[in-house]
């Protein structure tokens, strides 16, 4: 493919933006090659600045569940924009979208809109600490909850007493109360609570991991976390920024039977799909916890563009459509994703290439390893260099995968049989190339 205009745009972008990007993963450093600059997108396709078309298998990292330029969302944004983009005052649509979110996530008795998943997770952590009066937070290796300082920690060895900064610029003091434990290991969680009695405010996790590549919870894992947190008086936070509205209308908590009642998480964070591609994050859950937020309670949290009218309009258009077309949407996503994920797995097997496919619903990851991938350690043992070669070959053949082994691929309802055929043909040629 010719990408002269993208190359020129990259040079121009690097004059103003570090690495030429506004988010590091877009620089393709994990997979090599030069990132195409997208000019427009519609349905299942991205079109770059040189006119090259790609089947989109990352969907803006999740939001574009209904495909690009989804007409009802576009119409709603256009209509809202004519009434001004932002007021900084209350509007009816904030409660209108909240009501739709609550219909999908009944555990979210109260909620608050913010402008990103990072803000949602950062606010949920602060709220959990304020509500419990406890300093420690448990997160898991391979789970990403945005770039708030307290959550940028490297995995400590075993039950590390103190978190280790996962980025420059994060002082030790900021992460000393964050424990990073292995995923799918209940004993490590129990041990952390035993060694930090009445000091742990919450456990936050991706109920299906997407940020280590896709990793599903072991049977009993989520239930075990619910029992341990309840026993020790800590809050359980499901970070469903990626899984919400993706795995089911009610996300992982619906899929795994934790949508309501005593097994429901105490707090949930959402993002991506809830804004239909516009900047929206949400955190919410038990009313008694949420009422600790200012102006009712002592936990401060705020945002100039929180509940932004255009984002609310896009979210309402998206969730309204999901609610009225739920069965057709999730059965189509399941069928299309199964065809793609298992189709490529079969092609790899035929070429004798060790490939492990982890899939839950319409999110999946191909790991270049013959071994099972059940946590970040096993994900890290896969051949990431092979993934890079595969990514570049697929991009040349018009299929855009997420540019990192440690990300999930996402299918939208806009993909049909024609797109499945394009992906499988591109994969066949790419895999053949890899064994030469
Ligand atoms: P944002 O601040 O990027 O909106 O959301 C942070 C976040 C929180 N929780 C989960 C489970 C997430 O996946 C994310 C963000 N996901 C990444 C991709 N895996 C965003 C892509 C990027 O960083 O450019």
Question: Topology of this protein?
Answer:
Layout: H1 4-16, E1 38-42, E2 45-48, E3 53-56, H2 71-81, H3 92-104, E4 110-114, H4 117-132, E5 136-140, E6 153-154, E7 164-165, H5 172-175, E8 178-181, H6 186-195, E9 200-205, H7 221-232, E10 235-239, H8 251-255, E11 267-270, E12 281-285, H9 287-290, H10 309-324, H11 326-350, E13 356-360, E14 363-367, H12 376-380, H13 384-396, E15 399-400, E16 409-410, H14 417-434
Parallel strand pairs: 3-15, 5-8, 5-9, 9-10, 10-11
Antiparallel strand pairs: 1-2, 2-3, 4-12, 6-7, 11-12, 13-14, 14-16
Helix pairs in contact: 2-10, 3-10, 6-7, 11-14, 13-14
The structure holds ligand KE4.
Ligand KE4 binds at residues 23, 25, 61, 116-118, 121, 144-146, 206, 210-211, 239, 241-242, 271, 407.
Describe the structure.
- With 436 residues, this protein is α/β, with parallel strands linked by helices.
- 38% of the residues lie in helices and 15% in strands.
- The protein has helices at residues 4-16, 71-81, 92-104, 117-132, 172-175, 186-195, 221-232, 251-255, 287-290, 309-324, 326-350, 376-380, 384-396, 417-434; strands at 38-42, 45-48, 53-56, 110-114, 136-140, 153-154, 164-165, 178-181, 200-205, 235-239, 267-270, 281-285, 356-360, 363-367, 399-400, 409-410.
- The protein has a seven-stranded mixed β-sheet, sandwiched between helices.
- A hairpin with a 2-residue loop joins strand 13 (356-360) and strand 14 (363-367).
- Bound molecules: ligand KE4.
- Ligand KE4 binds next to helix 4.
């Amino acid at each position: 493919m010719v990408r002269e205009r993208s190359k020129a745009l990259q040079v121009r972008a690097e004059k103003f933006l570090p690495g030429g990007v506004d988010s590091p993963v877009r620089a393709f450093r994990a997979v090599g090659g030069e990132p195409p600059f997208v000019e427009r997108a519609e349905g299942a396709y991205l079109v770059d600045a040189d006119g090259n078309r790609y089947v989109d298998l990352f969907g803006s990292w999740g939001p574009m569940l209904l495909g690009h330029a989804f007409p009802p969302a576009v119409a709603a944004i256009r209509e809202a924009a004519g009434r001004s983009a932002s007021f900084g005052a209350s509007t009816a649509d904030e409660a209108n979208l909240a009501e739709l979110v609550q219909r999908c996530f009944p555990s979210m008795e109260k909620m608050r809109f913010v402008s990103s998943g990072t803000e949602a997770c950062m606010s949920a952590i602060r709220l959990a600490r304020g509500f419990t009066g406890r300093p420690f937070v448990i997160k898991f290796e391979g789970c990403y909850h945005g770039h708030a300082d307290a959550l940028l920690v490297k995995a400590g060895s075993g039950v590390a007493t103190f978190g280790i900064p996962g980025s420059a610029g994060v002082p030790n003091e900021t992460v000393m109360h964050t424990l990073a434990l292995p995923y799918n290991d209940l004993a490590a969680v129990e041990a952390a609570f035993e060694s930090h009695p009445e000091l742990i405010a919450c456990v936050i996790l991706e109920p299906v991991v997407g940020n280590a590549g896709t990793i599903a919870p072991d049977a009993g894992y989520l239930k075990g976390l619910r029992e341990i947190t309840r026993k020790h008086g800590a809050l359980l936070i499901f970070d469903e920024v990626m899984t919400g509205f993706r795995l089911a209308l009610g996300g992982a908590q619906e899929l795994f039977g934790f949508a309501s009642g005593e097994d429901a998480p105490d707090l949930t964070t959402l993002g991506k799909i809830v804004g239909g591609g516009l900047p929206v994050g949400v955190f919410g859950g038990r009313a008694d916890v949420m009422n600790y937020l200012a102006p009712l309670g002592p936990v401060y949290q705020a945002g100039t563009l929180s509940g932004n009218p255009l984002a609310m309009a896009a979210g309402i258009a998206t969730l309204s459509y999901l609610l009225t077309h739920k069965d057709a949407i999730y059965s189509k996503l399941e069928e299309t994703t199964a065809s793609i994920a298992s189709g490529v797995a079969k092609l790899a097997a035929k070429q004798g290439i060790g490939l492990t496919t982890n899939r839950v619903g319409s999110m999946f990851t191909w790991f270049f390893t013959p071994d099972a991938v059940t946590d970040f350690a096993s994900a890290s043992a896969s051949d990431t260099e092979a993934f890079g070669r595969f990514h570049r070959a697929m991009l040349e053949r018009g299929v855009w995968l997420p540019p990192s082994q440690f990300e999930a691929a996402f299918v939208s309802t806009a993909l049909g049989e024609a797109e499945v055929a394009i992906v499988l043909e591109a994969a066949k040629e790419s895999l053949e190339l890899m064994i030469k």
